[in-house]
Fold:
Amino acid sequence: MINPLRGMKDLTFEESRRYIHIISTAVNIAKRYGYSYIETPILEETALFKRSVGNSSDIVNKEMYQFEDKGGYDVCMRPEGTAGVARAFISDKLDRQPIKQKFYYHGPMFRYERPQKGRLREFHQFGCESFGEASVYEDFTIITMISQIFDALGIGFDLQINSLGCTVCMPPYKQNLVSFLTDIKEDLCEDCNRRIDTNPIRVLDCKNKTCQLLLSNSQKLIDNLCDECENDFKKLTVLLDQAGIHYTIDTNLVRGLDYYNKTAFEFVSNEIGSQSAIAGGGRYDRLVEFLDGKPTPAVGFAIGIERIMELVKMPETAREGIYLGAMNDDAIEPLLALAARKRLETKVTIEYNAKGFKSHMKGADKAEAKYVALIGEDELKNGTIWIKDIESREEKTVPLETF
Ligand code: HAM
Structure:
């Protein structure tokens, strides 16, 4: 028997119902915010992710599904959606148009991580990317949109925010951080030691307790922002306060992808165990330029669908459509034509075997049909069909052609 690969799974029945509900709720809200659907390839050149997510990130270093294709190209299954959307934005020359562009997407992402609860190797994201808007109002708007999506799905969350500064304030901060880290190098863990040279900012979110303790004495970027970044961050907090969106400032929130600057945020849930991040995002004003496009400010986010699957409050399912059944063999074929006609307007479940009344009633119940419609001997003789509304219990017999 062939099973799915480790860290990958099938979505069926209740889970797939939840999946569709989450996606359609998010899509409806994203459309109200002016986002349009974008579909980008799952397979991209490896160079795209190296240049965007970053060579020193765990995703690129350890987790990529990377291989040489039959043409000898170095390719990679996308580990996230932003890089591909930014590439498409540039490939389609949208960076050369003065219009602001907003895209939403959803689909599978691939990271070769150690699978555990909430951490898969194939998982699904719903994401949004807004290009061309530098105002912090857009950061606020995007956070509002995510909180509306979670509210609509009945999911509680904690919002954590930080600012990662810009090309003015980040480099001097990084330099200071490196000299601070170099002094305490011997006491830091192996990962942190490697990161001092490759990506010192990532040291800040090391989960090791000793490292955390040592880092509590480090300078915080949030206290060393340039005027513009500081004003924007303050503005964001004021707007969130006014909107009643509760947040905490986490000065160690740096995100695992290298393209971010200024606003960075994560939505976390305390109901799902250690993999608690249910959405993440932020501003990435330099990514389009890194990928050889015209400098374009941008901000976006992605929600991890599997992580919220168990949290979502599903709406009650209402009975829907018609169950069609025959009580003798001759009545089955007339039902086929009727099913095709009725399917133009509603859901139809048809039973191909002639059965008794009770058995059909059970079938209609299982199909969660609103109506049951049966043809027995009398109906067949008279060219009629018997119909019952399962909820109101009303029943009637009508000519087949008028049903
Ligand atoms: P990310 O934080 O890497 O950001 O992923 C976003 C969300 O995807 C996470 O918060 C989590 O819910 C989910 N996720 C990540 N890895 C896994 C996994 N192995 N298994 C299950 N769920 C997972 C990004 O991907 C950015 N592209 C977000 C973004 C969009 N930033 C700007 N625009």
